[in-house]
Amino acid sequence: MEPTDTGWSWGWAGWGLAAMLLFWAIGAYNRVMSLRNAIAVAFAQLDTHMSARASVCAELLAVLRPLLPNEQATFDALDAAQQEVQTALQAVRARPYAGDPVASLGVASAVHAAALTRLMSMLEHHAELREHPELFAQVDELKMIERQRSFTRQVFNQAVGAYNEAIIQFPTRVLASFYGFREARSL
Fold first, then answer.
1. Distance CA 157, CA 163 (A)
2. Do 32 and 172 touch, CB atoms closer than 8 A?
3. Which pLDDT score is estimated for 5?
4. Is residue 80 in a domain?
């Protein structure tokens, strides 16, 4: 009789262990999915500010082109950088947790920042533009949007960091590749 009792108790212990592992796997999956969804939410906020920046840059360029015909190269560089950012944003919107599209957006954003810095420097050197107060209102709005974008970029990077940390921790790391979770990239 003892062998039967031992077999019966090991059977229940095995089922209990299997159930515990199953519930752990489900919990780990839900935790990582929650963190991945937080990346998407953070990116949506960042996307809003980047779209607002694009709108203000377009308005600013429309005002500046007729006023400074000799600076068309600067305007064209900013316009091209803005188009690059918009193309990269389109790719990231589908999967903000994917590494390669976010890396492309990072490069496009760096190019855009350089072009925008050049434009702001140019504005400082043209004293005749002070006669156009609406122009400086747009510049102020652009500066405010840049500060907001910087903050939402930081929130996005923190969400990416929390997700990446979760998928490399043991024992979740064991299931990460099984579930198809890959490392996300920050901006």
1. 10
2. yes
3. 54
4. yes
Considering only CA atoms, which of 31, 22, 39, 29 is closest in space to residue 187? 39
- Give the pair of three-digit tokens for residue 102: 């976010």
Domain membership flag for residue 187 = no
The whole-angstrom separation of Cα 31 and Cα 159 is 13
Specify the CATH number for the domain of residue 166.
1.20.1440.20
CA atoms 164, 168, 172, 175: torsion sign? positive
Domain membership of residue 25 (yes or no) is yes
pLDDT at 3: 52
Residue 140 domain-assigned? yes
Query: Is the previous residue joined to 96 through a cis bond, with omega within 30 degrees of 0?
Result: no
Q: Which is nearest to 164 in space by CA: 138, 145, 183?
A: 183
Give the per-residue pLDDT at 65.
92
Sorted by sequence, the CB contacts under 8 Å of residue 151 that are 6+ apart come out as none
Residue 20 has pLDDT above 50, yes or no: yes
User: Apex CA 171: angle with CA 167 and CA 172, to 5°?
Assistant: 30
Which token pair is 166? 């979760």
Q: Would the CA dihedral through 85, 89, 90, 91 be positive or negative?
A: positive
Q: Which residue, chain included where needed, has tokens 């198809």?
A: 180
What's the rounded mean pLDDT across residues 25-48? 94
